[in-house]
Write a structure and sequence with these properties.
Elements (H helix, E strand, L loop, with lengths): L5 H7 L3 H19 L5 H24 L1
Length: 64
């Protein structure tokens, strides 16, 4: 049987690596959205959708 390294253990223990990656991507996309020429309402809608996806992903990870 293969020994797990710390990253693998963290993923098995609740998706920590994936969780961090999702939030890093969330922050990057958030920054990109804010730098666009979209209206304030369009930016808010994009960010609200992004947050729903992020929360949904973290909820899914918590189920693993």
């Amino acid at each position: 049987m293969k020994e797990l390294n710390m990253n693998e253990l963290e993923m098995v223990a609740g998706g920590g690596v994936i969780y961090d990656t999702v939030y890093d991507l969330n922050n990057e996309i958030n920054t990109i959205v804010m730098d666009t020429d979209l209206t304030t309402q369009e930016k808010n809608e994009a960010i609200n959708t992004l947050h729903l996806v992020t929360r949904g992903t973290s909820d899914l990870i918590n189920l693993l």
